Amino acid sequence: MEIEKMEKREISKSKNSEFPDSQFPESKILRLHATCVAIKSHGVLLVGEPKSGKSDLALRLIDRGATLVSDDQVELTRDGDTITAHTPGNIAGLIEVRGVGIFKKKYQSKQQVHLVVQLNSKEAIERLPYPESFECMGINIPQLRLCPFEASSVIKIEMAIAALEDHSMMVGMLKDDE
Length: 178
Description:
By secondary structure, this protein is mainly β. Helices cover 13% and strands 37% of the residues.
């Protein structure tokens, strides 16, 4: 999904009294309909259509040790050559568990984004995909395409985070040609 097709809006920090100027060093905030978790200090931004499984996948990642950053809405800022995800104050620490309710969870208010996971149907996932990136505010972030409802999806994300650290991927989405 292209970022232009997602629900987004830019907010001038000078017009947004909810956040002090010092919290956002850049002048623009991009709000996405997305979910973000932190895995071992690596931000993972989950993007996809409404009802595509973002909260469900985040819940399973949290069960395996990830920390919630934000569910349903994420505010992104550019900090030099990185993108940072922030929790909008009104939903801080809340996650929707479809069919059950909204729950409070331990959370962190911001996290640098290292990986974007585009949620797709199983049929749309290539077996050995070429490297992709998610362009956000002029910064390219490595991107995976996964089916969120596969049992292995959480392990695939954890393996992708490990590959970003140790360059262990031989072929696929995160393969570095260096």
